[in-house]
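Can't attach files on this board, so I'm pasting raw text. These are the components:
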Amino acid sequence: MASDTVALGTNGHEPSYLEYQGKHKGILGWILSTDHKRIGILYLCSVLSFFFMGVVFGFLMRLELISPGETIVTAQTYNKFFTLHGVIMIFLFIIPAIPAIFGNFFLPILIGAKDVAFPRLNLLSWYLYITGGLLALMSIVMPGGPADTGWTFYIPYSVRTDTNVIYALMAAFILGFSSILTGLNFVTTVHRLRTPSMSWFKMPLSVWSFYATAWVQVLATPIIGITLLLVVIERVLHVGIFDPALGGDPVLYQHLFWIYSHPAVYIMILPGMGIVSEIIPVFAHRTIFGYKFIAFSSIAIALFGSLVWAHHMFTVGMSNAGEFIFSLLTMVVAIPSAIKVFNWTATLYKGSIELAPPMLYILAFIFLFSIGGLTGVMQGVIAIDIQVHDTSFIVGHFHYVMFGGTGFAFFAALHYWLPKMFGRMYNIKRAKVAFWIIFFGFNVLYFPMLIMGWLGMPRRYYDYLPQFHPYHFISTVGSWILILGLIIMFTNFVISLRKGEKVTKKNLWGGETLEWQIDTPPTHENFDEIPVVEDYPYVYKDNEIAVEEEKV
Amino acid sequence: MSNGASNFVETVDSVFLLSVAISVFFLVLITALIIVFSIKYNRKRNKKAVNIHGHTLLEIIWTTIPTILVLILFWYGWVGYKEMVDIPDNAMTVEVTAQMWKWSFKYENGKQTDSLYVPVNKPVKLILKSVDVNHAFFVPAFRIKKDVFPNTQRTAWFIAENKGRYVITCAEYCGLNHSHMYSGIVAMPDNDFNKWYTMNENGSKSTDNKKSGSEE
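---
Top answer:
Structure tokens for the assembled complex are below.
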């Protein structure tokens, strides 16, 4: 983040947060800053670094699978690759991506605040994040090598393997605290720091999403923390809580793991949904359809999402009552997501749609997330789940939800907000080219997984039967296309930071949320005076000058 | 599904096809709407948008219809699953042992094998155990899967409906050679099975010709 890469405050008056001179200079001015915007940028740099690492491991896995048998690495190495890919992508990328980067940067601005409620705690969360990340990386270089358990750390394998499971567990434990503190901060911020005129139903929908996410982070993450610590204790002291050889119960571990890790799926997707709700009205230039339904569906997802964890365990041999209830609740949790999809689509109706890069990613989100959601419903149907559980169908499904959903929302947010954050515009044409390549490559990569999973290709397989070869081959080719698109996209951003057209306009896209009413890039204090909010932020009054408001 | 390898194939495949049909319908609907709206209401053609705040009846409709559909799917899924756990009393029992990284099978008469030999059209009950870590007993062609744990047992059952060889594979990650933990089910006509079952390991007819428990 060298200072020559950023726009200087050309607006005359106050310097932007990028030039603001606090107590410390240079790099210290960043890593000791409690400004929510600077912390957001710290997260941006660190989360993206881990994302690239995760992409590399994913690329290597796909390359290994291009043909049956050993292609580039041994089975042992492959098992470490998928564990690292999972741990990095989940704990270091997808959970913090939207809340920690864009939540930190924009949540206070969206509600008219100068900062989050606890700025120093906020900086501490970043340090915890870095510590957790470094621990995960240390596991790679320490003797024994990275864990080979998969990101789920299922017992008893995770207490038997000689690899550095403890590093990975402690990394996830510490990252959990980073997540809890961020959640705590956001809940408090939304409750206490909204500008006085902003009542709950005047909040932007992304704020609703961040708020719902934050509650899940605070309530669910401690469970994984305790559980992972118990695994460490199990490995070191052999107490026999989970280890069946010592009288423990390995299924108990799975329950505790998924009591967090299923809600964690909503920690990952809810912020993405918030981004979608935020961006669609801007580029359709009209008010959002069903504001309250979208807002309440976020809360409903957070609530019901906490009650469905055992659908990851339909094959463990639960009681019939357990299977029945968890399957039923899983079906119910699909409904709020469906409501959102319908409302988003309806928001396009009679809009004035501009297919700018953020909007392209959002429309792709709806398509990919629908595939992810519908395949998710299939897994809630127990008889189907028995067949597809632990196959590449699941891998395909959650990449459609997590990458096609959250990942694409994240890319949309990058295209939507980066110019605001840095005051430099990227090349729109190049961004669109990258989008189409990414979208195409994504489907080539993940759709074959759905088919071969149904046909019986188990997941976490280093080798496979010849009948699956065509699917694996196509999938690997897809990974190359996807990565090509990612390279173009990120190159475009890097070029824009150095040479991109300077933007000083406050409102880049015609948005009505508060971040578009302040300087680009924002000043240290965000707002010169406390903003007054008259209505919820998707009013688009100018539409009504020509056309009378219309009911369907 | 006339070519179902096991008694579960028909139920599982029909609920799967139903769910695929519903999914394709909604996916095509949503995608078509997005494309049509993006073209029809593109800013080039449509300079002025219309603010529509919502429509309660529409919200009710698109909440109710998916709810009914998922409840139907849920019910068929549950019925299909119930079949998989209700084991008939007359089933022939085989003990299945999983270990890193192979399967072994022990029959009621003490016979032990590396592949699972079963008669067609007879219920077979499996008692699943592991000696080390978690595994999962997965027969894709039969649509059955059950996790296998150490120090405790799980059960599964099936009726093989056609003779043939079917792949058994491990579906729960179990370390280094997880992807090589294969075995097979050999389903054969009743007579052939009985001949095989009563055969000694050296190939001669067993003297204590105990009848299989499955045949009452």
